[in-house]
Amino acid sequence: MTETDREREPVEGYLEGYAEILTGVCAERRRLTRDEREALRSRGERAAEVGIGLRVLVRAHLSAAQGVLPEVPHSAVGHLLSAVEQAVDAFAEGHERAQRLAIRQEEAARREFVDDLLYGRSDLGRLAERAVRFGLLLSHAHAVAVARGPEPYDDGCAVTRAVESSLLARFGDRRILLTTKDGRLVCLAPADEPEVLAHFAKQAYAATDGGQVAVGRAHPGAGGVVHSYEEALNALDLAVRMDLDAPVLHAADLLVYPVLARDRQAMADLVRTVLGPLKEARGGPKPLLDTLTAYFDTGCVTAQAARRLSLSVRAMTYRLDRIHRLTGSDPGDPVQRYTLQTATVGARLLGWPDQPL
User: Fold this and answer.
1) What's the pTM value of the predicted model, to 2 decimals?
2) What per-residue confidence (pLDDT) applies to 245?
């Protein structure tokens, strides 16, 4: 049996009665009835469900019409062509309807899997089995990157498609999962391919018009995916609270902040004790707290910190002296500087002075 014969064999079952319909239409000089069109739609749906391509089916319908043509009177050829057009249109409509339903079901299954994966709401063994369907091996270690931008994104938006196209063009099928969650782009990649997330971060930053990307650490197993995802989310949240404007944040570089924030009561006490006296300053504590933040963020370089705050070096020096007099701690002294810097970080984590301690 030739390849063409093998291809034709499963198609013939979906053409049963088709030639008779065409012959009847030409003999009666009529259009297809509603029942005939609905029957063709149903056959198109069934063909799509078993995976027969539309192009093959259309070719089979045209071939069957050619077989009927010699029996059709010349005056009825126009009716034959019209009937073929109606028949193929109805069949294709059913085929496309089934395809759309299959796509929606696939999207729903993928969305359910993503939700279960990122929130750890399913049995880990079962989750690992489902992951294979989407090209993932959860027995290996993975890392997750999350990107946010000025607007929410979903799976079908232009930003998501642009990033996905770039990843596919660069890496092909390398067990990568790109999706969206809560309006953010999410990329999951094997731990031994860090270049994937690096490329994702670059493309997401550009596609989101200067958004921010956070990369969690790599962890093994399905539970590790949740852990890495939460690390990335926490890094983005920390960026807001700490005013971190780097385009790409790595959770591994920010581990000190969760440690400092772990004992909130102790941190609040440190902030009150060390920085509380700044409330006595004219204009409140905020300008002097900003001074400390700029000073520490620039590596304690007075001139650079002054430029960041649009101050003269003299004004910056005056502010640092004022902080020393009010708090009793000298920002220039290595030991006292550490206490001041830790308290300044704590103030940013706790939202002081805008939020009460």
Assistant:
1) 0.67
2) 86
